[in-house]
Design a protein that fits this description.
The protein is of the alpha/beta class. It contains 29 helices and 23 strands. The strands form five sheets. It has a seven-stranded parallel beta sheet, with helices on both faces. Strands 17, 18, 19, 20, 21, 22 and 23 form a seven-stranded mixed beta sheet that branches. A hairpin with a 2-residue loop joins strand 7 and strand 8.
Length: about 700
């Protein structure tokens, strides 16, 4: 409407109101007596408005609009009392952290209407926030030990020792701040730590104060005024706190944020980071100093900074090394060497397919949407990569997750149907090749002549042809003839195709009897169709830009099994049988798999010193017990004349126990330069071979692989 009858803004503290608005005829601050205000826009703290005697002074429809700041708190009884009482035409909730860990549905309180959403990366891109320079700094070693979860938080004296205080101050002076003087916030692990560190800073000439949840609103506001003032008398350099400034406090003048505590979650990290990102006159940037100890949750730091919630370990590792390439504008990100190693260690040991993490992300998305999410919603809204659900060994499919953890989900499949959904989820839905997905897509409408229909679809929809080797490989995948070892028994029920024969000759393939029968179940049909559509979208987004004439994409990641399948091998090979490389004689493809960083505990005969000379030249070592006349070495050296296709797959290390994926780096050819040597601490010989890559490795991937 043209005229607002009345607006009330509910917020947590009065300081921001006083600084920005002040009492005027337009803006008024509720003091407890409704008769005292005549302003069109009324501000009130939650504590004031929730009082029964204050609510009673207003009619239920007094306000046309009510705005609630820090809206993630509306699950509290005090907020609920306010929302249950008033009946405005419109409720508006504002929050920087709608995702909660207690499963309260903040979105439902506002009918799942999202007026606008903006994340850290976008806000920086659009210039809404002050640029920042983040420094991940190694926390101090005390008596040869680093502050960590095993010793640091238990041995309180380590956290507040003079050595650590001096170390922190030394870093503060080194990295500096923007402006005439420092105006900083320091986040600590406990109230006791905040109080003692404040005392020790004061002993060293700083003017600081510790604030905790026990301090009154008046005391907090007075401390903030002392922090931001430019008057010499009573001013503060730093406020030490635990978590009371995570949210709801707007102090634009802050030019330095210091984190002396482990990262609890990406949400809390961004809240604390955000205290220093408000723009202010005379402030060009904010310095963020994060003292990183041996904490198991260190992996949350790059997740928070990047905003990448896919929980893909390699993406997180690369962000630690390349944050400056990703962060928008003039902001910078830097981790010192030891901090990087600590974060890498935390990433390696983290289980991103953990049920707790999956459930948290699922319910965040469900609350946002107001209904059970579809598979593609996870990509659309930037939530956790749904492949983390497929990777979980106790789940294997989104269907299984919903059955276990979603009370509203009532669909139940047979054991065979469930197994087929798991097979498609784990083997095909990533979209790494379109063929099987396109075949399933045709199976929804056709029962016979499926290979011919697939060839037609590949040509028409994806501008691809299918070789004989590829066709046989696809058929083997869809008839359970491809797996090796225990994999064959695991998916023994997953037979999608049967032969069509005439006069004893195979003429075509049709939908298998079992598959044709269960496709009649509308629930199974709908689940499989959604899964296929999801896989096709993944293919279009990530795997359609194929390398030369292969089904592989440069710089995408593949497991051993993916490589065997996409190189059209007749049968899969278990990694132990590949052992670094293996020639498939039928397809004449020769994939080479390199673990660039070798583990310390591997045997001497497998410690191959493979290494890049530059981004287009590689030195790779043969298996042990080889010389120049060995068959595999000769196949490498004479690959071109023998029609052998050598492909390179490299991974940084073997520590990711979940994905076990390698970057695909394309074809390569030997230069002919070789050297036979005896492997260290053994009597086994091996051959060092120089390779030229057909395509130089992209710089960011190259730097990630070679850097320690």
């Amino acid at each position: 409407t043209n005229k607002v009858r009345g607006v009330v803004i509910i917020f947590s503290g009065s300081l921001g109101y006083k600084r920005v608005f002040g009492n005027t005829k337009t803006f008024g601050l509720l003091s407890g007596n409704a008769k005292d205000y005549e302003a069109e826009y009324l501000f009130s703290t939650m504590q004031m408005m929730a009082k029964p005697e204050v609510l009673a002074q207003f009619s239920k429809d007094e306000f046309q609009m009510i705005i609630i700041d820090e809206a993630h708190r509306v699950g509290a009884s005090s907020y609920q009392n306010i929302m249950d009482y008033f009946t405005p035409d419109f409720w508006l909730g504002m929050t920087a952290s709608p995702e909660r860990t207690d499963n309260y549905d903040v979105y439902q309180a506002f009918d799942h209407n999202i007026a606008y959403e903006i994340r850290l990366q976008q806000a920086l891109e659009e210039g809404l926030l002050c640029p920042f320079h983040y420094f991940g700094i190694t926390d101090l070693q005390i008596d040869g030990e680093t502050v960590d979860e095993e010793t640091g938080l238990k041995d309180f004296n380590r956290l507040t020792s003079d050595d650590r205080v001096n170390y922190v101050i030394e870093q503060i002076k080194y990295y500096g701040y923007s402006g005439d003087r420092v105006k900083g916030l320091i986040f600590c692990s406990s109230k006791k730590e905040a109080n003692i560190l404040s005392e020790k800073f004061n002993e060293r000439g700083y003017r600081t104060q510790a604030l905790t949840g026990k301090d009154s609103q008046e005391k907090r506001e007075k401390a903030i005024e002392c922090l931001i003032t430019d008057q010499e008398e009573n001013r503060l350099d730093y406020i030490f706190t635990v978590d009371i400034f995570n949210e709801g406090v707007d102090i634009p003048e802050i030019n330095q944020v210091i984190m002396l505590r482990p990262t609890e979650s990406p949400i809390v990290f961004v809240q604390q980071l955000g205290r220093g990102l408000r723009k202010a006159e005379g402030k060009e940037y904010t310095v963020i100093l994060d003292f990183i100890g041996n904490y198991k949750n260190n992996f949350m730091i790059p997740i928070a900074l990047s905003g990448d919630r896919s929980y893909n370990k390699d993406n997180i590792r690369r962000y630690v090394l390349e944050g400056d390439r990703v962060i928008p504008g003039a902001s910078t990100i830097h981790f010192d060497e030891i901090s990087r190693k600590r974060i890498f260690s935390a990433i390696d040991s983290a289980n991103f397919s953990d049920i707790k993490l999956i459930k948290e992300n699922y319910f965040n998305l469900k609350n946002k949407l107001g209904h059970i999410p579809r598979l593609q919603d996870f990509d659309k809204y930037g939530e956790m990569d749904v492949l983390r659900i497929f990777d979980n060994n106790s789940l294997g499919s989104y269907y299984k997750f919903l059955v276990k953890y979603e009370k509203e989900y009532q669909i139940r499949l047979s054991k065979t149907e469930e197994k087929i959904i798991e097979f498609v989820s784990k083997k095909l839905a990533s979209g790494k090749r379109i063929h099987e997905l396109a075949l399933l897509n045709r199976m929804f409408t056709l029962g016979h002549g499926l290979i011919g229909a697939l060839q037609e679809s590949l040509q028409k929809d994806y501008k691809q042809s299918m070789s004989q080797n590829c066709m046989e490989n696809v058929v083997n995948i869809m008839t359970n003839e491809f797996p090796a070892g225990t994999g064959k028994a695991t998916y023994g029920e997953c037979i999608f195709l049967e032969k069509e024969e005439a006069e004893g000759q195979i003429t075509e393939y049709k939908t298998s009897t079992t598959m044709a029968q269960i496709l009649q179940n509308p629930d199974f049909y709908a689940i499989l169709k959604e899964l296929v559509e999801f896989g096709i979208e993944r293919y279009r987004a990530n795997y359609s830009d194929r390398y030369q004439d292969t089904n592989l994409v440069l710089y995408q990641k593949y497991t051993y099994e993916d490589a065997c399948r996409l190189l059209n091998w007749e049968n899969n090979e278990v990694p132990l049988n590949i052992g670094g490389y293996k020639l498939d004689k039928k397809t004449k493809t020769f994939p080479v798999f390199i673990n660039y960083d070798k583990a310390d505990d591997i045997s001497e005969t497998t410690k191959y010193e493979d290494h890049f000379i530059n981004n287009s030249t590689l030195i790779a070592i043969s298996k042990s017990g080889r010389n120049l006349e060995s068959e595999d070495v000769q196949n490498f050296l004479r690959a071109k004349e023998r029609g052998i296709d050598v492909h390179l797959f490299v991974r940084k290390n073997k520590d990711d126990k979940i994905s076990k994926e390698f970057y695909y780096l394309g074809r390569m050819t030997t230069s002919g330069q070789t050297q036979v040597f005896t492997m260290q601490n053994t009597d086994k010989t091996a051959v060092e071979i120089e390779w030229f890559l057909d395509t130089p490795v992209r710089e960011d991937i190259y730097q990630y692989i070679i850097n320690e």
